[in-house]
Design brief:
Elements lengths: L1 H15 L1 H39 L3 E6 L1 E4 L2 E4 L5 H8 L5 E16 L2 E10 L3 H5 L3 E4 L4 H5 L4 E4 L3 H4 L4 H4 L3 E4 L2 E9 L13 E5 H9 L6 E6 L5 H15 L10 E5 H44 L1 H9 L4 H38 L7 H27 L3 H6 L2
Length: 402
């Protein structure tokens, strides 16, 4: 009953000056809303990175030509060939698939439209390894590869860039480096990651790229999909063993190629995003502390205003513990109400950012509970001093207070 009565008195006191109560809670409301919004942005960024990781394929290693420096400029040394890809494909249990790639930018013309596009020459297993799906038409086949067919598959955004649609452009010819290619397929949208947007790439058979377009047997990249029953570490060792043998690299000499685990880049970005999220939440948490200081100031003013009331309650038998509890409950109640309103405001702000700014936001139960719990802790922390000061008032002096 004592707790119920104390809570009733606290609520009556808060309701007695509703305007001051609203201004007192404002710091808590803004603080909780800021924490919720900042954490939602950070969590959404981490979720986006996870989705990118799934899209990229966490079990894919990229073999690239090594770089050398000439006059302070990094230059690629062309050392990878289709023979290297064939050697990696034969007799190794650590690889599920091997995909050589040539990547250059060429002018592509359709009608009177002329675009500079990233053109990838690769093998028919490219979509399966990299997680692409065909929206219209088909991807080129092994027969197209063997025949050096002049066929091309477009990224999801290319038809719109050519001011047409995916269905209408199938079967039409486009010119790549002034060479006619027949469009046989359009990819599903993949979405951009980092600085790359595969939706504005185009794909042609590797043999066609080598013998009809570039005239060069070298490839820029060889993507290797790690087998399910193997590990990335074993696959990297196997790649090094095979390519050093193929390139006749002497023991102790440096590799003329590099093996990149793309998962490491994504994990590094995720760690940086996580740190940034904590930083944003910490900065937003400062406003909670400021709001707590505001509540403490108001509670100290309230103690001064209600000194005579405190004296009467003590004269009627209220103990120090009763007075301490009453003012502490008032402080905590202010913070809890502010926390609830802050949660609603933060969730609304997160939804608006996702809808109008296009940012991915995720409001989690953990972040909401943490912000709400921290607001309650602020109420206890900054309510103790005013409550203690009220409890320590001498009843006689309090009754004499005007």
């Amino acid at each position: 009953m004592l707790i119920t009565e104390t809570l009733r008195i606290a609520l009556l006191s808060i309701r007695g000056n509703i305007f001051r109560t609203a201004l007192t809670m404002l710091g808590i409301i803004i603080g909780v809303a800021a924490v919720i919004t900042m954490v939602a942005l950070g969590t959404g960024a981490q979720r986006a990175i996870d989705e990118q990781m799934a899209a990229l394929g966490g079990d894919i290693l990229s073999i690239q030509t090594s770089s050398w420096f000439s006059r302070g400029v990094a230059r690629d040394r062309q050392t990878l060939t289709t023979d290297d890809a064939a050697a990696l494909s034969i007799g190794t249990r650590h690889f599920a698939a091997v995909v050589p790639e040539i990547n250059n930018r060429y002018q592509a013309k359709y009608g009177n439209m002329n675009l500079n596009l990233s053109t990838i020459g690769t093998t028919p297993n490219y979509p399966d390894v990299h997680g692409f799906e065909i929206a219209n038409g088909r991807f080129f086949s092994a027969a197209d590869e063997a025949a050096r067919a002049r066929v091309v598959v477009l990224g999801a955004e290319i038809p719109a860039m050519f001011e047409t649609d995916a269905a209408a452009i199938i079967g039409r010819d486009i010119l790549i480096r002034s060479i006619p290619f027949t469009v046989i397929g359009v990819m599903n949208a993949k979405g951009s990651y980092g600085w790359r947007n595969p939706d504005d790439d185009i794909w042609i058979p590797l043999s066609t790229a080598q013998f009809r377009v570039t005239g060069d047997e070298h490839v820029e990249t060889i993507s290797v999909q790690v087998a399910e029953d193997s590990t990335v570490e074993l696959a990297m060792l196997e790649i090094e063993r095979v390519l050093r043998r193929e390139h006749k690299i002497q023991p102790g000499a440096d590799n003329d190629f590099s093996v990149i685990d793309r998962k490491q880049f994504v994990e590094s970005r995720q760690e940086a995003t996580e740190v940034f999220t904590y930083l944003l939440a910490g900065i937003a948490g400062v406003s909670l502390v400021v709001g707590g200081i505001g509540i403490m100031n108001i509670m100290l003013v309230t103690v001064t205003e209600r000194t005579r009331e405190i004296g009467i309650r003590k004269a009627l038998g209220a103990t120090r513990g009763n007075i301490l509890l009453q003012f502490l409950v008032e402080s905590i109640t202010l913070c809890l109400f502010g926390g609830i309103l802050g949660l609603l405001l933060g969730a609304t702000a997160s939804s608006l950012l996702a809808k109008f700014a296009g940012w991915q936001t995720v409001v989690t139960t953990d972040s909401a509970a943490a912000a709400f719990g921290f607001s309650a802790a602020v109420g206890i922390l900054f309510g103790i001093w005013p409550a203690k000061r009220a409890a320590q008032l001498d009843p006689i002096d309090a009754l004499r207070h005007e």
